Amino acid sequence: ASNKSLLILPGDGIGPEAMGEVRRIVNWMEDNRAVSFDIDEDLVGGSSIDAHGIPVTDEVVEKAMNVDAVLLGAVGGPKWDNLDFSIKPERGLLRLRKDLELFANLRPAVCFDALVDASSLKPELVSGLDIMIVRELTGGVYFGEPRGIEDLGNGIRRGVNTQVYTTPEIQRVARVAFELAKKRDNRVCSSEKANVMESGVLWREEVQKIHDTEFPEVELSHMYADAAAMELVRKPKQFDVIVTDNLFGDILSDCAAMLTGSLGMLPSASLGDVDDSGRRKALYEPVHGSAPDISGKNIANPIATILSYAMALRYSFDMGTEADLVETAVQKVLASGIRTGDIMSAGMTQVSTTEMGNAIIREL
Amino acid sequence: ASNKSLLILPGDGIGPEAMGEVRRIVNWMEDNRAVSFDIDEDLVGGSSIDAHGIPVTDEVVEKAMNVDAVLLGAVGGPKWDNLDFSIKPERGLLRLRKDLELFANLRPAVCFDALVDASSLKPELVSGLDIMIVRELTGGVYFGEPRGIEDLGNGIRRGVNTQVYTTPEIQRVARVAFELAKKRDNRVCSSEKANVMESGVLWREEVQKIHDTEFPEVELSHMYADAAAMELVRKPKQFDVIVTDNLFGDILSDCAAMLTGSLGMLPSASLGDVDDSGRRKALYEPVHGSAPDISGKNIANPIATILSYAMALRYSFDMGTEADLVETAVQKVLASGIRTGDIMSAGMTQVSTTEMGNAIIREL
Ligand SMILES: CC(C)[C@H](C(=O)O)[C@@H](O)C(=O)O
Ligand SMILES: CC(C)[C@H](C(=O)O)[C@@H](O)C(=O)O
């Protein structure tokens, strides 16, 4: 048996369909590259609610803790929209991120050459675009206490959340950003609202300190989050690595992903610290959501999930050659004009989810 | 003496230059339309820090409380960037918003026909674009307590801010959004992160209640803030009125403004409640910032500030005819091909700040 372990959590909506295509590529790797994993599959999100009443069970969290990598599809859908906040599908994903301490969320916003025209931006502004957003993922307003809704009497209620960061939390994610920048274009832009929020002042100071003491050779700039949203729209190619907190990262990374026109193509990695045994906890998932409106129709684009698997090969299993194989196959399929509906354009060939999987396996 | 009072706060950067052109139009109105104001002018932001050591004095706040409308240029610049958080230029603006209780910030994101090509988006996606963002302006994480940076010992610090909304705060801004929608395309999209934040859950519930009980005839939808950022980029014309909180509104309105390509053209209004004397406190300012890099060069675009004055004429002084005059003059100038540098394109005539003012006065 192999000692490489992978937990697959297909989740909801188009998650299972996309993950089906990943399974076929995993099988291909086993047959053709003698690459075998101990694979387990389980539930998260709405599918876990339906089976167990909660969006993730302790057992699944325990499994996730003990594998080399988790591969997740997507969570959520209208079926579970009216559930109480505390048991919604999203809380399964949030608990996994928190319990595994996956503090660094890497979200590449890359414009695929073949898809330049799918962007809503003018082609010259996005062609060749390659931004890496490093989003803090286990802190900030997502997890801060106190939180909740309290009754003030007289029919008046009050909703509270807390934005909170400690210096070690800021430092460790800043280091991830600077390390990445060194392997890329050597530039980091840190984003917050230090003009309005003290937590942003602290963020700015600590990122600057880590820069000055540990990475003086990397170019560092600071930009308020509202200005960053503007600049992403105005001139996205000015950015290399962007490092920001959980909430701003949520919004800015989605904005950047949509700019590329390649939303259905974008994977992400959520990484923890390296533990004593040299293993780094990691979860890989597409940037896109569960797209309930097109789920079950075999029309979803499986590429972002497939590329998330490729990211897992590269970062968790040190299998760069195999990751390259998958990424090259995807590029060739795109170059040959094969498209799922979301990235379809005139003159191309529209295919289903499984046909896209077939095409990629053919190129492998 | 007239009983119409206006306080002009030019502020920093390009604020004074832009406001100079407004003053000329105010004079033109006095000479040609017998429209006279009691006008006072004072300091805010960096210019107030330089003169008084604080970004706004009690005296100026007092003046602002007692006029019919405040017209503000812009605040901030690198000169004051390293000042302590509590006395930065921005705090002058934030104090004015808070003390005057200007809870509803109206930010139109309109694409001017003559400027369609200035957008980074494809022309067909923005031509005719007309979104009204209603941003809550006196609550949320901007003003919530507790806040600050505390020392935890061992060189570790902790930065905290509090996101907080009460039901009456949500209700009053929701009403403004629904009222506006009725005069427009009758659609409101409310945005928060109810999947992650309890304050967002409360926001969603209260907006829905105000809709169901007071504005059932308006179409209401809800969208997470990250999805809203994506949808703004993907297909901005799907929106009519967007209502959202202070922080999300800051980011989404800047993103929307930049989409139009008309950033240098966009005014905004910040409105309070109607008081016993029937007066609604109001502050008007351009959406753009103080642009320190181009200030003092007589090249800034004064139109957003001029249109902010037109908004004041319309909303605070019930002078729709005069507002129309100004807006039409601006449109004619654009149609004639006259442009400041920020909106310049091939075949047009590039002019300075004062020349743009001249051209608009000529059209009046
Ligand atoms: C599903 C949701 C909780 C999540 C988030 O807000 O982090 C998603 O938007 C994301 O960006 O991964
Ligand atoms: C200057 C700054 C405090 C302000 C804000 O964050 O509200 C600005 O960005 C705005 O949107 O008016």
UniProtKB/TrEMBL annotation, chains A, B:
The lineage of its organism: Bacteria, Pseudomonadati, Pseudomonadota, Alphaproteobacteria, Sneathiellales. Mg(2+) binds at residues 226, 250, 254. Pfam families: Iso_dh. Pathway: Amino-acid biosynthesis; L-leucine biosynthesis; L-leucine from 3-methyl-2-oxobutanoate: step 3/4. Its main location: cytoplasm. Residues 5-360 form the Isopropylmalate dehydrogenase-like domain. This is 3-isopropylmalate dehydrogenase. Its EC number is 1.1.1.85. Signal peptide: none annotated. Keywords: Amino-acid biosynthesis, Branched-chain amino acid biosynthesis, Cytoplasm, Leucine biosynthesis, Magnesium, Manganese, Metal-binding, NAD, Oxidoreductase.
